[in-house]
Amino acid sequence: EWLACWLSGPTRRRQRRAVELAAPFLAGREVVEVGCGTGLLADQFIAAGAKSYLGLDHSTVAITAARARTGLPAIRFEVCRADELPAGGDLIVSLGLLDWLTDEELAEFFRRHENRDYLHTFSERRSNTGQFIHRTIRAVDALLRPRAVRPRFMESEHLLALLPPSRRAVATVLREPGLRDAVFLTSLPVREAAR
């Protein structure tokens, strides 16, 4: 139990912090979460003031579980891939999705929501014990399952370069203690300074 709690702690903090960062900007807005999984944040975004929430994920199992989780009419869930992002939504949110996309997919994803605000997290490349262990596990996995898609660690400068030029000027990178390697990338005018 201790190990499971320790491993999931940063994910729970990242989810909580995403809602906190977005909350001042949610009034009357339509939130689209790409890679929503089982929809853990849907009710929280609505409670924080969002007009509506659309959760998208490629997993039918996750979307089925998400639909069973809530009955609020302002919340919907759909099976959808990141490259099939529907029109609409004022704020695009993703927590960890960017780690799984190629550079080409990232550039297209950013281009498709160029005129919308966004709040994303990604795993930043750093030299630390946790990332060394994670990369070692991924290397072993690559030997066992060579065709499997794997997450990656990126430098913030690399990710910023993939944004459309019109969006780079408003992009803020937020690093926060307690989130380990997770970093926020947002167009929202958050008060916290990038560290």
Shape: globular
- Low-confidence stretches at least 5 residues in length (pLDDT < 50)? 1-6
The strand line-up of the biggest sheet is 3-2-1-4-5-7-6
Give the helices and strands as they follow along the chain: HEHEHEEHEHHHEE
Mean pLDDT across all amino acids: 82
What about the largest sheet?
7 strands, mixed
The amount of helix comes to: 25-40%
By secondary-structure content and strand pairing, the structural class works out as alpha/beta
C-alpha end-to-end distance: 33 Å
Which range does the strand content fall in?
A: 15-25%
Q: How many DSSP helices?
A: 7
Describe the structure.
- It is a single chain.
- This protein has 7 helices and 7 strands.
- It has helices at 2-22, 42-47, 60-69, 103-112, 129-144, 156-162, 165-168, and strands spanning 30-34, 52-57, 75-79, 91-95, 117-123, 172-175, 182-186.
- It has a 7-stranded mixed β-sheet with strand order 3-2-1-4-5-7-6.
- It is globular, with a radius of gyration of 16 Å.
